[in-house]
Design goal:
about 220 residues, mainly beta, SH3 type barrels, single chain, 3 domains
Length: about 220
């Protein structure tokens, strides 16, 4: 890369990093500049050459393609423009976004309500995480584990959820409405169920399996057969 020999540009690495962070934040406004860490690979020679640019040099990132994602190991195409002209160059960098996020402080069993003692807040790189994670205790309040979550595992949204209204194995009242009459019978839920969800139930007096809709914490509405 041929540049002007004025040697007037102070700390080109910091200036380039600021431009890269602005570019990342434009694509990911939920992140903050203090969370973004940019480290460079084999870039010392490039920054030494950039130090030869005039003090008015301005940097910008040239997007190579619309799907370009500035996360993980990335090659940034950049351009420096000053009164002497412009130069283009490539920088290899690693982009990390470090956030304290929820992890399991110990094994959390399936069906267990999430408590503060179950959580640890661990700084992890979230730049490439595909699933939703948790950044505040209140986000996990009143939720329970839908699977067994091993110790030290990051807790993602799909791993937890609200407790079911009815639990599998629980005794329930089966409610059948027909011709203006309501008939009730003892039954058993064969799986967990949420409000208005269809689940299988067993009528205890007839040992018969039916499908019904959860209408309360103790009742399931079934069709009359």
């Amino acid at each position: 890369m041929e540049v002007n020999a004025a040697r007037a540009l102070d700390n080109p690495e910091a200036k380039v990093t600021a431009v890269i962070k602005e570019f990342i934040l434009a694509k990911n406004p939920a992140w903050s500049p203090t969370e973004i860490k940019v480290t460079y690979k084999t870039a010392a020679k490039t920054f030494a050459q950039l130090a030869d640019l005039p003090a008015d040099a301005q940097f910008k990132i040239l997007e190579a393609y619309p799907e370009f994602k500035p996360a993980g190991n990335v090659i940034f195409p950049l351009q420096a423009t000053s009164v002497t002209g412009s130069v283009k160059f490539l920088l290899r960098a690693k982009v990390e976004v470090l956030k304290p996020i929820a992890a399991a402080a110990k094994l959390i069993k399936k069906g267990q309500k999430i408590e503060a003692a179950d959580l640890s807040w661990v700084e992890r790189d979230v730049a490439l995480l595909p699933q939703k994670y948790f950044i505040a205790p209140e986000q996990l309040q009143a939720l329970e584990a839908k699977i067994a979550i091993p110790e030290n595992s990051t807790i993602f949204e799909w791993m937890v959820g609200p407790p079911p209204l009815v639990r599998g194995g629980q005794e329930v009242i089966l409610v059948a409405n027909a011709a203006g009459l309501t008939v009730k019978a003892r039954g058993q839920a064969l799986s967990d169920g949420y409000l208005d969800e269809l689940i299988q139930v067993k009528r205890l007096d007839a040992n018969k399996v039916l499908k019904g809709k959860v209408i309360s914490a103790a009742e399931v509405e079934v069709n009359v057969e």
